[in-house]
Amino acid sequence: MRMRVVVTIVMSAVLVAAPVSATAAEVDTVEPGLVASAPEEQRELEPASGTIVPTTITSATGLLPTAGVYESERALILQQTNDLRATRGLPPLRLNAALNDIAQDWSVQQARSSRMSHRPGFHLLYPSGWSRAAENVAAGYSPSAVVGAWAGSTGHRANMLANHTDIGIGVAVSSTGRLYYTQNFGRYSSAPPTPPGDVYRLSGSDRFATSAQISSRTFPSGASTVYVASGLDFPDALSAAALAGAADAPLLLVTRSSVPSVILRELRRLDPDRIVVAGGSGVVTSSVISRLRTVASDVDRIAGANRYDTSRRLALDSYGGVGAPVVYIATGAGYADALAAGPAAASVDAPVVLVPGASRSADSATLALLRHLDTERVVIVGGPGAVSSGIQQSLNAAGLAVERIAGADRYATAALIGAAHFPDAPRGYLATGTGFADALSGGAAAGALGAPLFTVRPGCVPSQAHSALRAQNPDDLVLLGGLGALSPRVAGFYRC
Q1: Contact assessment for residue 51 and residue 179, using Cβ atoms and an 8 Å cutoff
Q2: Cβ–Cβ under 8 Å, residues 302 and 314
Q3: 197 C-beta neighbours (distance < 10 Å), count
Q4: Using an 8 Å Cβ cutoff, are 330 and 383 in contact?
Q5: Whether 77 contacts 150, CB under 8 Å
Q6: CA 206, CA 174: separation in Å to the nearest integer?
Q7: Are 308 and 358 in contact (CB under 8 A)?
């Protein structure tokens, strides 16, 4: 007997904006029969045949599956939608990176909850300038059938044939294999920015789920070594991220006293021989160590008297026996500069060592470490306000060649680091510069794949990062964190 599946389509939602300058409160809902609360329509379809496999991106520097983005299915839906418009003499819709980001995020959320619905206030996420917005959702159809199903429904067909100019398309699969689709439509008077590469987002329901997502997409075949650090503070993880990247290892985040279930599942999938825990019992308790030993018998805690001592000990663990001709130095009082420095340091097989940046000179313990590692060159990241001129002078006095990479602010510094170390890398990572959690695991991933990490503003790409990425011209841009961390405007490559 052939099985049949009931597929539900929620009626489409349509919004027409007041003039472009209007506020969200001035947006009027039209065609009330087509809003999200309209009755549902049910249809029976043959189940989709075969298994749909996510596209993967490959390059000389590594492998990054596209986090559930089905590129060929998205292209098919776009083509069929525009073919439908062509039958009515309508111009084709252009694929909009920001609307893609919104649609993909909503498809992922529907798939995670196994529940189809419209996103409340979806238009509030749109970049400004739209005069009309609409959304279609569907679930359970095969990619080749979903546009036909929408076309057979008056409200959905009206959205596809309306005077929109842009479209975003999301496709995601649930744990049971059910596909969820979203179309976000918009009308814009001018063309949006075009990102230099395909845009993907790695995110989870919280910082720990995001950490696991980054790891699973970067290390699909597992890892022999895994670094673990607190996800609630940044100092220990800053140094660990660079070391993880250089060792082709992920960095996973934990709480002070527990290993989140999503992290534990990822650890078991990775199946490491060794786990390195960065930080003392004040930030990662012994109960976490015990839990980690259920995954790997070789669990080593590396900790010092404070964040600076821990940073030095981490560097010794990786480079004490082989030396480090180059060492990166960043302040341990903040996270911004060290985040961007991590992948750069990993690219030249160097550690990031944290120092008390306001000190008048380099401390004796740091100088002793540099001698032990036979360091010849030091790269200071951040301006004199982050790492003092006195520290730079004392390093010079110790016979070291010293270079400083610093911009006008954290975003400019990150852009300079990226441009200097990765002028033509096929991938670029973007993370918020106003938080650290997503960029910790992301920095390790970027380092492992030979890619820069640009810190950006939550709602736009700062000018220097924008220019650096245009010059780099990567094939892929990877956003780290959800829409609350980086808005769709970042996905759309809007310049600040």
Answers
A1: no
A2: yes
A3: 20
A4: no
A5: no
A6: 18
A7: no
pLDDT in tens, the chain (496 residues): 333 333 444 446 665 543 222 222 222 222 322 323 222 232 222 223 322 222 222 222 233 334 445 788 999 999 999 999 999 999 999 999 999 999 999 999 999 999 999 999 999 999 999 999 999 999 999 999 999 999 999 999 999 999 999 999 999 999 999 999 999 999 999 999 999 999 999 999 999 999 999 999 999 999 999 999 999 999 999 999 999 999 999 999 999 999 999 999 999 999 999 999 999 999 999 999 999 999 999 999 999 999 999 999 999 999 999 999 999 999 999 999 999 999 999 999 999 999 999 999 999 999 999 999 999 999 999 999 999 999 999 999 999 999 999 999 999 999 999 999 999 999 999 999 999 999 999 999 999 999 999 999 999 999 999 999 999 999 999 999 999 999 999 999 999 9
> Which residue(s) pair with 227 in the sheet?
251, 276
Instruction: Please give the Cα distance from 283 to 281 (Å, whole number).
Output: 5
* Residue 183 phi, psi (nearest 5): -120, 125
Whether the Cβ atoms of residue 332 and residue 354 lie closer than 8 Å to each other: yes
Name the residue type at position 30: V
Buried b (16+ CB within 10 A) or exposed e, 429-438: bbbbbebbbb
Q: In the chain, how long is the greatest CA-to-CA distance?
A: 83
In degrees rounded to 5, what are phi and psi of residue 394? -70, -30
Give the global pTM.
Answer: 0.85
